Amino acid sequence: MNRLMLYSQLRYFSNKSNNNKKDSSISKENNLTIPRKDIRKMIEEKDNVIRKPIKSSGPGGQHVNKTQSAIFLQDKKTDISVKVGNSRDSVVNAGIAKKRLIDKLDMHYNGAESKLAKKIEKIKKQKERNRRKSENKYNVDNDPSL
Predict the structure, then answer these.
(1) Do 71 and 88 meet the contact criterion of CB atoms below 8 Å apart?
(2) CATH class of domain segment(s) 3-14+25-137
(3) 19 vs 23, 42, 93, CA distance in Å?
(4) pTM of structure
């Protein structure tokens, strides 16, 4: 996963405008974490997820405009939803939607312990370290030789 995707997901997950969540404090109250494999199993059960093919938009021509190739997934328990129309193929979109829903649920249940949050934290540390190195290298004000 490249850094640009991680930053866009960071912005996506940090924007918590979805206020209609049913169980928004499950892991915060009990201090529990749910492993990703268990979240994946929850999604694979048909009773837990609403799956709808929807019409996509954007590039792709007549095929995208006429067929229902985009996928909408919604977790019934938390009302967290994902819409994916990246590809012209509904099977590819379903795989991408499943991965994104797993990431969102992992972030919802596990917070800072989620896989995505750890990647984002690692990149933040790298950026901070590189910023400090750059400041030390090019900072003329602290140069003792002057």
Answers:
(1) no
(2) alpha beta
(3) 11, 22, 26
(4) 0.62
